Amino acid sequence: MTIRHPRRLPLLALGMMALLTGVWAGLARLGWNVPLPRPDFSSLHGPLMVSGFLGTLISLERAVALGQPWAYAAPLLTGLGALVLVAGGPLVAAQLLMLGGSAGLVVIFAAIIRRHPALYTSTMGVGAVVWLLGNLLWFLGRPVFLVVFWWAAFLLITIAGERLELARLQQVPRGAQAVFLFLVGLLLSGLLLLEGSFDAGVRLAGAGFIGLALWLGRHDIARRTVRQTGLTRFIAVCLLSGYAWLGISGLAALIYGGVPVGPQYDVILHAFFLGFVFAMIFAHAPIIFPSVLGARMAYRPLFYAHVVLLHTTLLMRLAGDAAGWGAGRQIGGLLNAVTLVLFLANTVTALGSLPERPGTTTRAPT
């Protein structure tokens, strides 16, 4: 396998380290008797997965897109923050590193917006600011069950901005763009309400989740590309299934409201972070990883294995939550972890490969 940009590998490795250790901590939170480096390690599951893995990956992708050497400071800081968490260093040091990394992403988007002022770049810039504010709240000692909705909004707004960019190919009417802005405002209003009324804030954010799921399902180009073949269809299937999970998470937030722990909390968060966010990752991985590393990557029908496994195991986990079936929740969660490992294996083995047949390269409409 030839990698044209090997200097980016350490940054990607830091993100992968955060993913794998975050998954390990998540298994402990589910009640599996896994060895941990210290008793409180399971509490790091959320920060490792969101700021350590996803924040590093998004920052790295945007640094590559901007093409400025200074921009790589953002993924470096978040990746080092994750390393400090895993190594057992001072929590405040990790928080400051991740706070610095999220501030770096804001600066990256400021530069991007100057170059390309548009609704989609501004939307993603707002997402970066939301992440920065969420990390600031975490640094100031706010509980993770509250901060996690800021982290979720960062990911949703960023992803929505990316999809809005491609939605331009369908010439989205101004009225639909106005609805999009209203829904983002609804989500942001829910975040601002969390401090005063956690329950009302979660429900309002949930309404934003549902609205954006419906908007994306209606206006995303994936509605058209799902009729095609190969990688193009695979990406569309991942996207549309992810929007369904986003709607389910929003509906659960509307029904359950502000629950800080327990099975209902698990439904809201993991329908979002596993069902929605990882469906988006599965969709974009065949594009992002070759772009970041400068390596070839072939689409393989085997990619559907980790997509199908994600949805079936998540259904099992959330059914366990809803029915009070503890074993189902635990086993489903364990299989969620197996799914993510399978995804990494499928992705790594496809890197450096040539396409299996014409039309299956990573250069496909998304």
What does the model show?
- The two termini are 25 Å apart.
- With 366 residues, the protein is an all-alpha fold.
- The chain is 76% helix and 0% strand.
- It has helices spanning 9-29, 45-66, 73-87, 91-115, 119-139, 144-167, 174-193, 198-219, 222-225, 230-256, 263-293, 303-323, 326-350.
- It is built from 13 helices and no strands.
- The protein folds into three domains: 1-116, no CATH class; 118-220; 222-366.
- Helix 2 runs antiparallel to helix 3 (73-87), helix 3 (73-87) runs antiparallel to helix 4 and helix 6 (144-167) crosses helix 11.
What secondary-structure arrangement, pairings included, does this model have?
Elements: H1 9-29, H2 45-66, H3 73-87, H4 91-115, H5 119-139, H6 144-167, H7 174-193, H8 198-219, H9 222-225, H10 230-256, H11 263-293, H12 303-323, H13 326-350
Keywords:
disordered C terminus, mainly alpha, 13 helices
